[in-house]
Write a structure and sequence with these properties.
The protein has helices at residues 29-36, 45-48, 79-96, 130-137, 148-159, 163-171, 175-181; strands spanning 5-8, 40-43, 58-62, 68-72, 100-103, 114-116, 124-126, 141-144. By secondary structure, the chain is α/β, with parallel strands linked by helices. InterPro entries: 2-thiour_desulf.
């Protein structure tokens, strides 16, 4: 039985974003095919960590002591909830044998190529959200919603036992990653 693919719940149209919105891309042919095959496991790490909808926007930053924290726009430290959500995502992934996740780019939980810099001025910096980071550290391949074709190539190669093709799919520069690499 093929392993499920962990997807950010907001990418599936679930209204779980901080402002009660969603970023649904479930009409994308790759995601639609995974949904039709029953391979999708949806999770919002921030809700899993106990945060409500709506909630103040939050961003990752490094404080004066060099500690990684997540603060909301009012200065409240929400690191513990973000870490709890990342742990929930990892245990769900392990329980179901997940090898691949597609997570919402830019989020302090789900971002895999960039996050916002902690100044709440919409300034992007290369980096990862807590959940994406935790999954990657555990050896789970993470792509963003801008990389669905690359994610599919990676999965097909993995399931065909072609490690070299999977590595090439994971490393191939996508438009979004290329833009970051050049910034
Ligand atoms: S934590 Fe992830 S799944 Fe939840 S709203 Fe943010 S980006 Fe979407």
């Amino acid at each position: 039985m093929p392993s499920p693919i962990l997807i950010s719940a907001c990418l599936l149209g679930q209204p779980v974003r901080y402002d009660g919105g969603a970023n649904g891309v479930s009409q994308h042919p790759v995601l639609a095919a995974w949904l039709a095959a029953g391979r999708v496991l949806a999770l919002c790490p921030e809700l899993a960590g106990g945060l409500p909808v709506p909630r103040p926007p939050a961003e990752r930053l490094r404080d004066a002591q060099g500690r990684e924290r997540v603060l909301d726009v009012h200065g409240r430290d929400v690191t513990a909830a973000f870490e709890a959500g990342a742990e929930q995502a990892l245990s769900l992934a392990r329980e179901h044998g997940v090898r691949l996740a597609v997570l919402k780019e830019g989020s302090p939980s789900c971002g895999s190529g960039y996050v916002y810099d902690g100044s709440f001025s919409r300034r992007r910096v290369p980096g990862r959200g807590l959940t994406a980071e935790r999954l990657m550290q555990a050896g789970i391949q993470v792509f963003s919603e801008h990389e669905l074709e690359a994610a599919q190539r990676w999965l097909q190669a993995l399931e065909a036992g072609d490690d070299l093709a999977a590595a090439a799919a994971a490393a191939a520069p996508t438009p979004r990653r290329k833009e970051l690499d050049e910034s």
